[in-house]
Write a structure and sequence with these properties.
Length: about 375
C-alpha cells in the first residue's frame, strides 16, 4: 500500500479540503497521513474521521512572531517533517509553502512522487507585494518543475500556470462539499427572531477584508424597509464591526461560526447565499470559493460579485445573479434582480447543479491523478 504524506502548514483543525482529499485517498487504497503543525491544546498524533494526523511540534514555536523568526520556525518544520516522512511514496503538498517539504523528501529518495495542490493563485494572493511576492514567484518557478502533478482550484488559474511555467495544464479539483440532499431548515429565523416574511441573504465564511463584508454591511444598513436582511456567519477580524452594525440596524444579524458537520443545516436556513469577493487581486478574480458550492448544496440560489470564474459558473448553470458592478449600489441592484426572479424555477437549477458540483465528482479526478502516478 502506497504511503502518502499530505502536508499542510496549518494546525489542521478547520481544513475541509485536506480532510476530503485524505479520506478519498484512503478509499482509493492509499495510506495517507496529514502532516500539520502542532499548536497548544492539540494532539501530536490522532485520528480524524478515519484519517491519521501527525502534527509536528516545533521547539521554536514559543519564539516571537517576527518575520525572520517565522522563517526559522519554517525551516525547523521543513527539516522535522522531511525526516519524519522520508520513507513515504508520495508527498501531497498543499500550497506553495509545503512544496519544499516534498522536494526535500524527493531528494532523499529519487523514486518519490510530488503532487502540488494550489488552493489559490499562490503568487497573486491579496496583500502579497514587493520583495515577498518576487521571492514567491521565483520559488514557485524553480520548484514547480519537480512536481509530478499539479492541481488547481479554477480553470483560469490552471490556464495561467500552464502558460507562465510552460507545464502541462494542471488538473482541476474544485473545493466542493460531499453530495447531500439537504432539507430546508429554519435555524436563523428561530435563533435570531427573523420573521417569515423577511428574505434572508447569507454571507458565510471568513469575516475579513477583501471579501466584500463591509460593502454588504453598508448595503443592508440603509434600506427603506426590513424586508431583506443580511446574516453574517463566521469568524475573523470583522466580527466586532458586524456585531456593532447588528446593534444599530434591524436588517443585519451576526451568527458565530459552526462546525462543518452541521454547516449545511444552517446554510439551508437562508434564502440566498452571497459571495461578494472584491476584485483586489488575480487570486480573487479567478476564485471559485467553497462557500458558493456550499450554498448550492444547501439549495440556495447565489448572488456573486462580477468576477470571471464565479460569473461563468452562475450564468452557465442559471443558479443566481451576478452583480453588474462590485459596489454597494451594484449589490443592491443584484438583490432586487434576484427578488424579481421566480424562486422555484431558479431553485430547480440549483438542485440540478449541486449534482455536478459535489466532491464525489472531484474524487474521480483525484483517482485519475493518483492512478497515473
Amino acid at each position: 500500500m502506497k504511503k502518502i504524506a499530505n502536508v499542510v502548514l496549518n494546525d489542521f483543525t478547520n481544513d475541509s479540503r485536506v480532510l476530503k482529499i485524505s479520506k478519498s485517498l484512503s478509499q482509493l487504497g492509499f495510506e495517507p497521513t496529514v502532516v500539520a503543525m502542532c499548536n497548544d491544546g492539540l494532539l501530536e498524533k490522532e485520528n480524524v474521521s478515519g484519517v491519521n494526523v501527525h502534527r509536528i511540534k516545533l521547539m521554536t514555536r514559543p519564539w516571537p512572531k517576527w518575520k525572520p523568526i517565522q522563517f526559522v520556525k519554517y525551516i525547523e518544520f521543513l527539516i522535522r517533517s522531511s525526516l519524519a516522512f522520508r520513507k513515504v511514496d508520495i508527498i501531497h503538498c498543499n500550497d506553495l509553502n509545503a512544496l519544499p517539504v516534498g522536494l526535500l523528501i524527493k531528494l532523499v529518495g529519487r523514486d518519490k512522487k510530488i503532487v502540488y495542490d494550489c488552493h489559490e493563485y499562490e503568487t497573486e494572493i491579496n496583500g502579497l507585494k514587493g520583495a515577498e511576492k518576487a521571492a514567491k514567484k521565483w520559488l514557485e518557478r524553480k520548484l514547480i518543475r519537480y512536481a509530478d502533478t499539479v492541481i488547481t482550484v479554477s480553470d483560469s488559474i490552471a490556464n495561467d500556470y500552464a502558460r507562465i511555467y510552460n507545464i502541462p495544464k494542471p488538473y482541476l479539483v474544485l473545493n466542493c462539499p460531499e453530495y447531500h440532499e439537504q432539507p430546508k431548515r429554519n435555524f436563523f429565523r428561530d435563533k435570531l427572531n427573523i420573521r417569515t416574511d423577511q428574505t434572508i441573504f447569507l454571507y458565510q465564511g471568513g469575516l475579513s477584508k477583501g471579501r466584500g463584508v463591509e460593502l454588504l454591511l453598508e448595503a443592508f444598513s440603509d434600506l427603506d424597509s426590513d424586508k431583506n436582511v443580511l446574516v453574517c456567519m463566521g469568524y475573523g477580524p470583522l466580527e466586532g464591526l458586524i456585531q456593532e452594525k447588528a446593534q444599530e440596524h434591524s436588517t443585519v444579524f451576526f451568527h458565530e461560526a459552526v462546525t462543518s458537520d452541521v454547516l449545511l443545516n444552517y446554510t439551508s436556513s437562508a434564502d440566498y447565499g452571497v459571495s461578494f469577493i472584491e476584485d483586489s487581486c488575480l487570486s480573487y478574480r479567478y476564485c471559485l470559493p467553497n462557500k458558493v458550492f456550499e450554498y448550492l448544496m444547501a439549495g440556495l440560489p447565489v448572488l456573486t460579485s462580477n468576477l470571471f470564474e464565479m460569473k461563468q459558473l452562475v450564468e452557465k448553470e442559471g443558479v443566481g445573479i451576478v452583480a453588474e458592478e462590485n459596489t454597494v449600489e451594484g449589490f443592491r441592484n443584484a438583490v432586487q434582480a434576484s427578488l424579481n426572479q421566480n424562486y422555484d424555477t431558479i431553485q430547480k437549477s440549483v438542485f440540478s447543479a449541486r449534482k455536478k458540483y459535489c466532491w464525489e465528482d472531484q474524487e474521480r479526478v483525484l483517482k485519475e491523478i493518483y492512478h497515473a502516478l
